[in-house]
Design goal:
Length: 351
């Protein structure tokens, strides 16, 4: 039984069962593909269906041309001799013409797609040692231990490649899909994750990369430490452009526009368990309260200290999220806040 969950577009187009279903479906094939749920979950499956349907429609239009039966028979015979189909799905001379032509075009497209390197295959060239590839075909996360002691939690329908032994000056892994990395600290060797067009570079930290090959975006979220995220390609100024991320920050790279959106995650958490999880204030300085929150969450907060130096806060927080805390605090002074490039900006007139 084939594992269609890991199939690429070219894999589907070169699969007899897939092509047979869309050229001449049977009750059994309808049941099989319906139960697979690939039409709802797999973008490669949908793209392959689109290509096949386009070819079939084109051949139907081609068939309406004024060709003699002798010409159609001759063309089909030559196509059949060239293509040598494995199974017969043709039911009439007219149908044979466009299905045969579609098969030839389809095979050409399939061969082109198979030969064209995917971004994942291109990224593999960064590994010079023997490559170990792990695919997660399960419905739960898979834990992988790397040669340097780093741990990777690989999400379903994802794959990770890494060398049997890391280089002496760097540690390189290739990802397609989603994974959480807990990188062992090694100041002498940077850790590089190549995922689609984006590279994430760290020395030792914990972060999440979400980069499925058919996704329109690449997301990098930092849970601990600091990472740099940049596009693999060097720009016209011979520079690698990207962003620096701290805990509770996220970068979303749009693969179409080549632009980054740096932001704060939806539910920031306190980055150090040793820090206070309860915030109790009794006429405390508003400035000191903001500094305490900044330290606890590791997120930079910009404000005008001169304007806020006379403001005080009385109250307590327990289970409120970061943004709930900020909503309450800024309202007490008639102010507001906004998020700009992963920072919190406090807007207020003072007290």
């Amino acid at each position: 039984m084939q594992d269609y969950t890991m199939f690429t577009v070219s894999d589907f187009l070169m699969d007899d069962k897939f092509v047979g279903q869309h050229l001449k479906p049977t009750h059994e094939s309808e049941v099989f593909w319906k139960e697979s749920n690939l039409d709802l979950l797999n973008k490669d499956y949908l793209k392959a269906v689109e290509i096949l349907n386009t070819l079939v429609l084109g051949m139907k239009n081609y068939e309406t041309q004024n060709l003699s039966e002798e010409a159609k028979t001759f063309i089909f015979q030559k196509i059949s001799e060239t293509n040598k189909p494995k199974f017969d799905v043709f039911v009439s001379p007219n149908l044979k013409i466009w299905l045969g032509a579609a098969a030839v075009i389809l095979m050409s497209v399939a061969i082109y797609l198979a030969q064209r390197k995917s971004i994942y295959q291109t990224n593999l060239t960064h590994i010079t040692d023997q490559i170990i590839e792990t695919k997660n075909t399960l419905n739960i996360d898979m834990l992988i231990h790397l040669p340097d002691g780093s741990a990777v939690k690989l999400a379903p329908k994802s794959k990770l490649s890494y060398p049997a032994n890391f280089d002496s000056n760097k540690r390189v892994v290739i990802l397609s899909g989603k994974a959480t990395f807990d990188v062992a600290k090694d100041a002498s060797r940077q850790f590089l994750v190549f995922a689609n067009e984006v590279t994430t570079k760290v020395l030792g930290t914990r972060f999440v990369v979400n980069a499925y090959e058919n996704s329109e975006q690449v997301e990098v979220t930092v849970e601990e430490g600091k990472v740099s995220v940049y596009k693999n390609k060097i720009n016209a100024k011979n520079e690698l452009t990207g962003v620096i991320l701290l805990p509770n920050q996220q970068a979303i790279f749009d693969r179409q526009s080549d632009k980054y959106n740096k932001n704060i995650i939806k539910l920031p958490s306190i980055i150090d368990n040793k820090k206070l999880t309860k915030f109790v204030f009794d006429e405390d300085s508003f400035v000191e309260v903001l500094q305490m929150i900044e330290e606890a969450y590791g997120i930079e907060i910009e404000f005008d200290e001169v304007l806020l130096k006379n403001c005080q806060v009385t109250g307590s927080f327990e289970n409120e999220s970061l943004f709930q805390k900020l909503d309450i605090l800024t309202k007490t002074i008639g102010g507001s806040y906004e998020i700009v490039e992963g920072k919190i900006i406090i807007n207020a007139r003072g007290c």
